[in-house]
Model the fold of this input.
Amino acid sequence: MPTKHDLLAIGEVAARSGLAPSAIRYYEAEGLIRAERTPGGQRAFPRHVLRRLGFISAAQRVGLTLREIADALASLPPDRSPTKAEWARLSRTWQRGLDERIAELERLRETLNSCIGCGCLSLATCRLFNTGDAAAARGPGARYLLGDEPGDVLPGA
Done:
């Protein structure tokens, strides 16, 4: 149990984490972090919340959803800073997903120019890559950006 000297007011947490107090309250409401209440009803956060907030910020920067972040944080102890081994175990669980996202971003980088390079800005009318909107038969979304190749789609299909 943290002592009152180990607890930080929301303003201190905001200043140290670089997050707005509203974001901190939101993360608390979502169960990502926990605060205690002072006798006056104010939030008081244990110092280890700063690590969790740093983790949340880093995870969001790499594109993880709050649900993914919450699931990961649920595997960590809620009442103390995780050990190095616990952080390492958690990071290993994300390796595959991050590798897939990196591959998706690389595909986007390589194909984005061809998708908008001709100037028509429309896969529905593009005569170079999507004659007759044949890519629609493969499913919703920007099919070529999702990894389909123009040769995978038969014209008029």
Summary: The chain has a mean pLDDT of 81.
